[in-house]
Design brief:
The chain is mainly beta. It folds into 4 domains: 272 residues, no CATH class; 198 residues, Immunoglobulin-like, CATH 2.60.40.740; 202 residues; 200 residues, Sandwich (Immunoglobulin-like), CATH 2.60.40. The chain is built from 6 helices and 58 strands. Strands 56-55-46-52-51-50-49-48-53-45-44-57-58 form a 13-stranded mixed β-sheet, with no helix packed on it. Strands 28, 29, 30, 32, 33, 34, 35, 36, 37, 40, 42 and 43 form a 12-stranded antiparallel β-sheet that branches.
């Protein structure tokens, strides 16, 4: 962009062009020591006819080459073989602008035309100034016309030419891309026959002004009479400003000249010239505007963005150029956020790849491209094209960009910053110290399509983009808001996620991985929390699996031995969301955790927040696992799901969980119709339920062979209160118990006088049963746990005439699972019967129930236990529907020798 400046300043280098307008004298060997003294610059001067910022001055530039001190003052005959000038370089200050396009292409002179020398007939309108040349052995001063040439292309952004004596000479301008984007003008390999003393060049601020009509010399005029004055020659075009002063005040401006000789071509002598300070910046207008349009007007959809920044131009030679723009700050609307789906396949461009600070094309990969750019700069023949690339993320600063324009001979490379609010996801872009160039319009065209980098707000409406532009003039910023409309898909925003779930093999009583998949339609509200109820009877074998707990669970740094599954998610807007984990990235994992939030168990989901070039670490979501104490049903309640990660909204499209640890999840032994159900809460507070049918198969193949044993301890005489021990044993495989009814023989009846304290239902629900309501103890062994479940047996108030018998089985503190077995007590045929109607569909290898005897004994002997054989009647119903009836004997200790007898 600064190459524009070079064009204007090209006139300055016209002075250098005069280097070739030399007296023709052969160079003699230099006799000075050291040899470096044979060539140098004596003085450099520069001035503007006006120092008004944004004005259109004439620019005069003079430089002198060191003279032979022994030469005659008025003739300057070379005595000591002073070296002749070969290369001259002019470093022009940023902000001093020239616009060759005001001349028009027909008005520019071609290299072929200038090559005709004294016969050249460059258009009058192509002359932009004059250069006066002084040289050894010349008795007259040559006043040369300076022409705006047709640029040769490549990295030459502009070219100025003149015929220095007999030699067509060119000054080529390039952009100082490695520093401040000022212009560098070069004269290379000036004629060795030329021995220059002084060059004075004036570039006209308004070349077509009629005041220059008598200065429009032709090469023929110069050859014949040095062209002190020409006849009036109109330019053939309207007066328009060619040169424009910087729009920045209060900083020193200078030009530098470096020159080398034919004797020492690589040894440059450098001098600088300061300008008078630029002033009057407070008079400059500054009124930029911004428009923003999404490429997709659908709510919640991936979208590109067309942004157009306009800076109105001043018209005419008597008005001031508006201040150039220095800092650009644009705050995109809240709700318009980054689209995670765009990270799939996204690349970055490093400092080495962009070739920052070099006058060469960037080598950024196309995968790093976020947007196309166009810059309308009056000094250029067409719009400059470029791109915005993603820079390599750095810790704490992931969203950096390059603004690159390798076009029209320039190599613009600006570092930009995207500041993304980590809480709201709002994007704020910042570009500081933009080049001092007269930009009329900037277009930013962010990519559209499925993997567009942005996603629209989820609801229709008008959204405001705020902008804040800072001028180089030091004046007040231009601030404002520009609207954009989201007008399609306005009926989106519901919340009805879908659920599919089940085991990969539904054979009853068999181990098989359990998977569930939650999907959300594009445009719906985002899930924020999940409560998942597994089918009753779907349980897990926890034996031998260590729990991830404490700081490890909080950080997701769980041991591999506690892994039970994995998580796969798809996030982002549109039909092409981002799947995590991506190939080659860290895997996800689901770990078994210990007690959490009052639940006996938990899971820890660890999902790497990795996408394309971004790595935000791991997201850890803990989920409490509750077990219904009556049914044994497992209920999983998640912690809040992450909604924004490092400023990137996480729009969940799919959440897939596979609990795939071998021999972990175990199917029910009941083939009744069941379901996995989910209750979901959205990020906006909406509730939704989803269900997936579940039914085990081949339950009829399962066997069912429970074994039950009774033993009475203590008195065997009538009226005695014995202690009762009942032992139930189940085989390793087969259907689980669904219901049990046990009727004691007539030898035992319930002594209601022993029922003293009964736990109320309110007390039981509050886990505050009095100690006096405990009448027994129970233990259970299950292959699911290494630990036993055990606990007291209460009498609890019931809707029946007699209290219920409730065994409260609990695990140890490391596994605080609780199961409540409730037996309804009634009488049948004058005896006692206890019925357990709801037994969890879970494998139990052994269950022991012990009821107290003596003063707290509920059983009373109705006859002598040693007088006959007494048997209970136990009826069992399996989860698969099978039934069996057992008649276990009531064992007691009879006789003085303690011989056991069955009664």
């Amino acid at each position: 962009m600064r190459r524009t400046t070079a064009i204007a300043l090209a006139s300055l280098t016209l002075a250098g062009l005069a280097l070739a307008a030399l007296a023709l004298a052969a160079e003699e060997p230099c006799q000075l020591e050291p040899r470096e003294k044979c060539f140098g610059l004596e003085a450099v001067e520069a001035s503007l006819s006006s120092t008004q910022a944004g004005g259109h001055p004439d620019l005069t530039f003079t430089f002198d080459v060191e003279k032979d001190p022994e030469s005659e003052p008025n003739n300057f005959n070379l005595k000591n073989g002073y070296a002749t000038t070969r290369n001259v370089r002019f470093e022009l200050p940023p902000g001093l602008i020239g616009d060759p396009n005001v001349l028009g292409f027909p008005q520019q002179c071609s290299a072929a035309e200038l090559a005709k020398g004294a016969l050249a007939e460059c258009p009058n309108g192509s002359q932009i100034g004059i250069s006066r040349i002084f040289a050894y052995d010349l008795t007259a001063t040559f006043t040369e016309p300076v022409y705006m040439m047709q640029p040769p292309g490549g990295d030459v952004v502009a070219r100025v030419g003149l015929i220095a004596g007999l030699f067509p000479t060119f000054v080529d301008f390039r952009v100082r891309s490695e520093s401040d984007y000022g212009l560098v003008a070069d004269i290379a390999d000036a004629s060795p026959a030329a021995t220059l003393i002084r060059a004075e060049t004036t570039t006209w601020g308004v070349p077509a002004d009629e005041s220059h009509d008598t200065e429009r010399c032709t090469p023929k005029d110069v050859f014949l009479n040095s062209c002190v004055k020409s006849p009036p020659r109109p330019p053939g075009s309207l007066p328009l400003p060619f040169l424009t002063n910087p729009t920045r005040c209060g900083v020193p401006l200078e030009m530098s000249v470096s020159a080398s000789s034919w004797s020492f071509p690589d040894l440059f002598d450098t001098q600088t010239a300061a300008f008078q300070p630029i002033k009057g910046c407070d008079k400059l207008p500054f009124g930029p505007s911004l428009t923003v349009e999404p490429t997709n007007a659908r709510a919640g959809a991936p979208t590109g963005l067309d942004m157009t920044l306009r800076l109105p131009a001043s018209v005419g030679v008597d008005v001031l150029e508006p201040s150039q723009m220095r800092d650009i700050r644009i705050d995109l609307p809240a709700g318009l956020a980054t689209n995670p789906g765009s990270a799939d396949g996204l690349g970055t461009c490093s400092t080495q790849q962009v070739r920052f600070g070099e006058r060469v094309d960037a080598e950024c990969p196309d995968a790093a491209k976020l947007a196309s750019t166009e810059f309308d700069i009056p000094a250029l023949p067409r719009r400059m094209k470029g791109a915005i690339y993603l820079r390599e993320p750095e810790p704490g600063n992931p969203f950096r960009v390059w603004i690159v324009a390798d076009d029209l001979g320039a190599h613009v490379k600006l570092a930009g910053q995207l500041n993304v609010d980590k809480v709201t996801g709002q994007i704020k872009s910042v570009v500081l110290d933009a080049p001092q160039a007269p930009v009329r319009e900037v277009k930013l065209l962010f990519k559209s399509g499925f993997r567009a980098p942005l996603a629209n707000p989820r609801t229709c409406g008008t959204y405001l983009t705020h902008y804040d532009f800072t001028p180089w003039s030091g004046g007040p910023d231009a601030e404002g808001d520009t609207p954009m409309q989201i007008t399609e898909g306005c009926d989106n925003g519901g919340f009805a996620p879908k659920l599919t779930a089940g085991t990969t093999d539904d054979s009853a009583g068999q181990h098989a991985p359990f998977v569930f998949t939650l999907t959300r339609s594009d445009g719906e509200q985002n899930p924020a929390a999940l409560e998942l109820s597994l089918p009753p009877g779907l349980v897990a074998s926890l034996a031998g699996i260590p729990r991830c707990e404490g700081a490890a669970a909080e950080a997701g740094a769980c041991p591999a031995a506690s892994r039970i599954g994995k998580v796969i998610t798809a996030v982002g807007a549109g039909p092409a969301p981002l799947w995590v984990p991506q190939p080659g990235k860290r895997p996800t994992a689901l770990y078994l955790g210990g007690p959490y939030k009052g639940a006996p168990l938990s899971t820890i989901a660890v999902v790497p927040a990795q996408a394309g070039p971004f790595d935000f670490g791991d997201e850890v979501v803990r989920n409490a696992i509750y077990v219904d104490p009556v049914t044994g049903q497992v209920i999983v309640k998640s912690d809040p799901l992450p909604q924004i990660v490092e400023g990137v909204p996480v729009a969940y499209r799919t959440i897939h969980v596979a609990i795939d640890r071998p021999n972990f999840t175990l199917n029910p032994t009941s083939c009744r119709e069941k379901a996995t159900t989910a209750v979901l809460t959205s990020s906006e507070g909406a509730l939704a339920t989803a269900a997936s049918r579940f039914r085990a198969s081949e339950c009829e193949k399962l066997g069912f062979k429970p074994k039950l044993f009774f033993r009475l301890f203590g008195p065997t005489n009538r009226g005695g209160h014995p202690k009762l021990k009942a032992t139930l044993k189940m085989p390793k495989e087969g259907a689980n118990i669904a219901a049990t009814s046990v009727a004691l023989p007539p030898s035992e009846f319930l002594d209601q006088g022993s029922i003293r304290t009964v736990c109320t239902r309110v007390q039981f629900a509050a886990k505050a049963c009095p100690a006096g309501s405990i009448y027994g103890f129970a233990t259970a062994k299950t292959p699911l746990f290494e630990e036993r479940l055990e606990g007291p047996v209460y009498l609890r108030s019931s809707s029946n005439e007699l209290p219920d018998l409730v065994a409260v089985l609990k695990g140890p503190p490391s596994l605080p699972v609780e199961v409540n077995l409730t037996g309804r007590v009634d009488s049948i045929n004058g005896g006692i019967r206890t019925t357990f109607d709801a037994t969890p569909d879970a494998p139990v290898s052994q269950f022991i129930l012990t009821m107290q005897g003596g003063s707290k004994g509920l059983l009373e002997n109705s006859r002598n236990l040693c007088a006959a054989t007494y048997r209970a009647t136990a009826k069992f119903t399996a989860q698969n529907g099978r039934r069996t009836t057992l008649h276990p004997a009531m064992k007691a200790t009879c006789g003085k020798q303690g011989k056991r007898q069955r009664r």
